[in-house]
Amino acid sequence: MSRTQRPAPPPLEANDQLVTAVFTAAWAVALVVLLVLRDQLPPSERWWIWTCVAGVAMGLFALWYVPRIKRARTRSAARRAQAQAQAQAQAQDAET
Predict the structure, then answer these.
(1) Which pTM does this prediction carry?
(2) Burial 6-20 (b: 16+ CB within 10 A, else e)
(3) Under a CB-based contact definition with an 8 Å cutoff, are residues 17 and 67 in contact?
(4) Which pLDDT does position 12 carry in this prediction?
(5) Where are the domains of the chain?
(6) What is the full DSSP assignment across the chain?
Protein backbone atom coordinates (compact mmCIF):
# COMPACT_ATOMS: atom_id res chain seq x y z
CA MET A 1 0.00 0.00 0.00
CA SER A 2 1.45 3.33 -1.07
CA ARG A 3 1.05 6.27 1.29
CA THR A 4 1.07 9.82 0.13
CA GLN A 5 3.65 11.85 1.97
CA ARG A 6 2.73 15.20 3.34
CA PRO A 7 4.97 18.11 2.36
CA ALA A 8 7.65 19.08 4.82
CA PRO A 9 6.65 21.87 7.20
CA PRO A 10 8.41 25.20 6.85
CA PRO A 11 11.43 25.71 9.11
CA LEU A 12 10.79 27.35 12.45
CA GLU A 13 12.22 30.79 13.02
CA ALA A 14 13.95 31.25 16.35
CA ASN A 15 15.03 34.42 18.07
CA ASP A 16 18.72 33.88 17.39
CA GLN A 17 19.88 36.71 19.62
CA LEU A 18 17.89 35.39 22.57
CA VAL A 19 19.28 31.88 22.10
CA THR A 20 22.82 33.27 21.84
CA ALA A 21 22.34 35.45 24.92
CA VAL A 22 21.02 32.54 26.99
CA PHE A 23 23.95 30.29 26.07
CA THR A 24 26.45 33.09 26.67
CA ALA A 25 24.90 33.72 30.08
CA ALA A 26 25.14 30.01 30.87
CA TRP A 27 28.86 30.03 30.03
CA ALA A 28 29.28 33.14 32.17
CA VAL A 29 27.54 31.51 35.14
CA ALA A 30 29.71 28.41 34.74
CA LEU A 31 32.79 30.65 34.62
CA VAL A 32 31.82 32.45 37.82
CA VAL A 33 31.15 29.16 39.60
CA LEU A 34 34.50 27.75 38.52
CA LEU A 35 36.32 30.93 39.52
CA VAL A 36 34.72 30.79 42.96
CA LEU A 37 35.64 27.11 43.34
CA ARG A 38 39.01 27.21 41.58
CA ASP A 39 40.99 26.46 44.77
CA GLN A 40 39.01 23.24 45.13
CA LEU A 41 39.70 22.18 41.54
CA PRO A 42 42.69 19.95 41.00
CA PRO A 43 45.26 21.60 38.71
CA SER A 44 44.55 19.02 36.00
CA GLU A 45 40.90 20.17 35.85
CA ARG A 46 41.45 23.92 35.67
CA TRP A 47 41.23 23.82 31.89
CA TRP A 48 37.46 24.05 32.41
CA ILE A 49 37.94 27.69 33.36
CA TRP A 50 39.44 28.43 29.95
CA THR A 51 36.68 26.47 28.27
CA CYS A 52 34.15 28.80 29.91
CA VAL A 53 36.20 31.86 28.94
CA ALA A 54 36.17 30.64 25.32
CA GLY A 55 32.40 30.03 25.51
CA VAL A 56 31.77 33.55 26.81
CA ALA A 57 34.08 35.07 24.18
CA MET A 58 32.42 33.18 21.32
CA GLY A 59 28.99 34.07 22.69
CA LEU A 60 29.84 37.77 22.79
CA PHE A 61 31.17 37.55 19.24
CA ALA A 62 27.94 35.81 18.17
CA LEU A 63 25.84 38.53 19.80
CA TRP A 64 27.69 41.02 17.60
CA TYR A 65 27.71 38.85 14.46
CA VAL A 66 24.20 37.33 14.34
CA PRO A 67 22.29 40.59 13.70
CA ARG A 68 24.72 41.53 10.95
CA ILE A 69 24.41 38.21 9.12
CA LYS A 70 20.61 38.35 9.38
CA ARG A 71 20.57 41.86 7.89
CA ALA A 72 22.91 40.73 5.11
CA ARG A 73 20.67 37.76 4.31
CA THR A 74 17.61 40.03 4.22
CA ARG A 75 19.37 42.46 1.85
CA SER A 76 20.49 39.57 -0.35
CA ALA A 77 16.96 38.15 -0.55
CA ALA A 78 15.58 41.60 -1.44
CA ARG A 79 18.19 42.03 -4.20
CA ARG A 80 17.40 38.55 -5.52
CA ALA A 81 13.66 39.29 -5.58
CA GLN A 82 14.26 42.62 -7.31
CA ALA A 83 16.50 41.01 -9.94
CA GLN A 84 13.90 38.30 -10.52
CA ALA A 85 11.14 40.89 -10.92
CA GLN A 86 13.26 42.85 -13.40
CA ALA A 87 14.00 39.68 -15.38
CA GLN A 88 10.29 38.85 -15.55
CA ALA A 89 9.48 42.41 -16.67
CA GLN A 90 12.13 42.22 -19.41
CA ALA A 91 10.79 38.85 -20.52
CA GLN A 92 7.26 40.28 -20.78
CA ASP A 93 8.58 43.30 -22.74
CA ALA A 94 10.39 40.97 -25.13
CA GLU A 95 7.19 39.05 -25.79
CA THR A 96 5.30 42.17 -26.84
Answers:
(1) 0.72
(2) eeeeeeeeeeeeeeb
(3) yes
(4) 86
(5) 16-95
(6) ---PPPPPPPPPP--HHHHHHHHHHHHHHHHHHHHHTGGGS-GGGTHHHHHHHHHHHHHHHHHHHHHHHHHHHHHHHHHHHHHHHHHHHHHHHHH-
Pick the closest to residue 38 from 28, 26, 50 (CA basis).
50
Query: What pLDDT digit, counting tens, does each position of 1-55 carry?
Result: 577 889 999 888 889 999 999 999 999 999 999 999 999 999 999 999 999 999 9
Q: How far apart are CA 79 and CA 81, in angstroms?
A: 5
